[in-house]
From TrEMBL:
Gene Ontology MF terms in the entry: zinc ion binding
Organism superkingdom: Bacteria
A Pfam family the protein falls into: DksA_N
Ranges of biased composition (kind: Polar residues): 26-38
Region annotation (Disordered) ranges: 26-46
Domain DnaK suppressor protein DksA N-terminal: 5-76
Domain (Zinc finger DksA/TraR C4-type): residue spans on this chain: 80-114
Protein name: Zinc finger transcriptional regulator, TraR/DksA family
Keywords, alphabetical: Metal-binding, Zinc, Zinc-finger
ZnF dksA C4-type: positions: 84-108
Residue ranges the record marks as coiled coil: none
Amino acid sequence: MVDKLDEMKAILLKMKEETIKEISKSLKSGSDIPTNEPSGDIYDQASSERDRELGLLLDDREREKLRNIDEALLKIEEEEYGICEECEEEIPIGRLKIVPFARYCVKCKADIEKLQAQTKRFEEDRAYREIALGEEEEA
C-alpha cells in the first residue's frame, strides 16, 4: 500500500504543479486585456467579454481543483487517503488513478449527484411556481 500511496502522491504533486502553471498563465493573459478601453465593434467587445468571463470561470475551477489536490495530499499525510467520505469503504485504485483527489467511491458519488439533481429540479420547480403566482397576482 505504501508504494501505491507514494505513486498517488507523485501524481497529485505533478497535477498540483500543472494546475498552478495554468492559473499563473491565466492570470498573466487576463492582465494583458485592457478593461477600460473599448476596442472594435460591439461584436468584438461581446466576444472579449465572453472570453474574460470564461477565463474567470476556468480560474475558479482550477482553484477548486487545487484545493481538492491539497486536501488529498493532506489525507495521504494523515493516512486517510483513498477512503470514501460517505460509506468509509476503500476507493478502488483504478478510480484514484483517474481522479486522484476523489473523495467518494463511484456508487456514493453517483448517489450524491442524483440527490443534487433532484434538489435542483425541486428548486427550479418552486421558482417557476413562484414566478407563475407573481404573474397571476399582477393580472
